[in-house]
Amino acid sequence: MIDVLLFAALPYVALVLLVLVSIARYRSSAYTISSLSSQFLETKSLFWGSVPFHLGILWLFVGHLVGFLFPREVMAWNGQPVRLLVLESTALVGGLATLWGLVFLIVRRFTTPRLKPVTSALDYVLYGVLLFQVVTGLWVALGYRWGSAWYVQVAVPYLRSLFVLQPEIKYVVDLPLVVRLHVLGAVTLFLLFAFTRLMHILVAPIPYLWRRAQVVVWHKDRRAVGRARGFGGVR
Description:
By secondary structure, this protein is an all-alpha fold. It has a single domain, classed as Transmembrane di-heme cytochromes, Chain C (Fumarate Reductase Cytochrome B subunit), CATH 1.20.950.20. The protein is built from eight helices and no strands. The longest helix has 31 residues. The N and C termini lie far apart (68 Å).
């Protein structure tokens, strides 16, 4: 019964909350959907945490997505030991980069006094779940090798069964404990998605990639700018 609740019922609860709460939050308080960037408060260590974290987690997400969408192609790719080793190595590098960046962001968040007023209790929960997910993922990668090979044969059928509303929990209930914890960590992230700053993914400024360049001019003489705008040079 516990397995049914965790691996069959909980994913649907997480998905329903993600959709409904995201819509409600967007309609009622759209301006709160932000990553609440703290770059203006402290930026020295932000680069060393944010860049590797985002690049690493994006690489891992794409890898999981490709395995989910094209399991046969991944199996064919892994048919050659060298290609399997390349895929496993790049995935491990992505996981280590994610861990490196996340640890930097957590340390920065806890050691910079100026960031505490813009940090909520849910932020700490989210950091904890993300750290748990990355650590268990690396544990699986190092302790149960060739994950890209058995992922498409075990995890993908389970995930696809959820999408067709016929959950087949037999694929996951007999997996090692750390693998099951990793699956539950992913479900927990979906459960928290609409309540935390993770929701900024849905409003990422992608149009910046193709919009026209925006020219910003800063005049050093602020008094001259004030007089030009009719403020009489008032600061």
